[in-house]
Specification:
The protein is mainly α and 72 residues long. It has helices spanning 2-15, 17-28, 36-46. The chain has a domain at 10-46. It is 51% helix and 0% strand. It starts with a helix and ends in a 26-residue tail after the last helix. 0% of the residues are buried. The mean pLDDT is 75.
Length: 72
Protein backbone atom coordinates (compact mmCIF):
# COMPACT_ATOMS: atom_id res chain seq x y z
CA UNK A 1 0.00 0.00 0.00
CA UNK A 2 1.19 3.50 -0.75
CA UNK A 3 0.87 4.76 2.84
CA UNK A 4 3.18 2.00 4.14
CA UNK A 5 5.96 3.37 1.95
CA UNK A 6 5.49 6.91 3.30
CA UNK A 7 5.64 6.01 7.01
CA UNK A 8 9.49 6.00 7.29
CA UNK A 9 9.68 9.32 5.47
CA UNK A 10 7.08 10.89 7.77
CA UNK A 11 8.94 9.59 10.86
CA UNK A 12 12.16 11.26 9.68
CA UNK A 13 10.26 14.46 8.95
CA UNK A 14 8.84 14.50 12.48
CA UNK A 15 12.17 13.69 14.17
CA UNK A 16 14.35 16.20 12.28
CA UNK A 17 12.20 18.60 10.26
CA UNK A 18 14.89 21.13 9.28
CA UNK A 19 17.46 18.53 8.22
CA UNK A 20 14.80 16.57 6.35
CA UNK A 21 13.49 19.54 4.38
CA UNK A 22 17.04 20.69 3.60
CA UNK A 23 17.97 17.27 2.29
CA UNK A 24 14.70 16.94 0.43
CA UNK A 25 15.07 20.24 -1.40
CA UNK A 26 18.77 19.72 -2.13
CA UNK A 27 17.86 16.40 -3.71
CA UNK A 28 14.94 17.94 -5.54
CA UNK A 29 17.13 20.72 -6.93
CA UNK A 30 20.00 18.25 -7.52
CA UNK A 31 22.50 20.33 -5.57
CA UNK A 32 25.97 18.89 -5.21
CA UNK A 33 27.10 19.15 -1.58
CA UNK A 34 30.72 19.54 -2.67
CA UNK A 35 30.07 22.70 -4.73
CA UNK A 36 31.41 25.89 -3.21
CA UNK A 37 28.27 27.83 -2.18
CA UNK A 38 26.61 24.79 -0.61
CA UNK A 39 29.84 23.49 0.93
CA UNK A 40 30.71 26.81 2.56
CA UNK A 41 27.18 27.12 3.96
CA UNK A 42 27.33 23.58 5.39
CA UNK A 43 30.72 24.38 6.94
CA UNK A 44 29.29 27.51 8.58
CA UNK A 45 26.34 25.57 9.98
CA UNK A 46 28.49 22.71 11.26
CA UNK A 47 31.22 24.98 12.63
CA UNK A 48 33.97 23.11 10.83
CA UNK A 49 36.51 24.22 8.26
CA UNK A 50 35.87 21.63 5.56
CA UNK A 51 34.19 18.35 4.85
CA UNK A 52 36.53 15.46 4.18
CA UNK A 53 34.84 12.16 3.39
CA UNK A 54 36.43 9.06 4.83
CA UNK A 55 38.21 6.90 2.27
CA UNK A 56 36.42 3.72 1.42
CA UNK A 57 37.78 0.75 -0.43
CA UNK A 58 34.82 -0.06 -2.64
CA UNK A 59 37.03 -1.77 -5.20
CA UNK A 60 38.67 -4.18 -2.70
CA UNK A 61 42.21 -3.07 -3.54
CA UNK A 62 41.84 -3.53 -7.29
CA UNK A 63 42.51 -0.80 -9.79
CA UNK A 64 39.67 1.37 -10.94
CA UNK A 65 38.28 1.33 -14.44
CA UNK A 66 36.73 -1.30 -16.66
CA UNK A 67 37.64 -4.90 -15.97
CA UNK A 68 37.27 -7.87 -18.23
CA UNK A 69 35.46 -11.03 -17.24
CA UNK A 70 35.07 -14.35 -19.02
CA UNK A 71 31.79 -16.22 -19.07
CA UNK A 72 31.84 -19.93 -19.85
Amino acid sequence: MFLDELIPMVKELIQQPIAFTGGFFSGLLRLNLNDDPVKSWIDEQAGSSSYTPSPTSANNGKSTGPQSISID
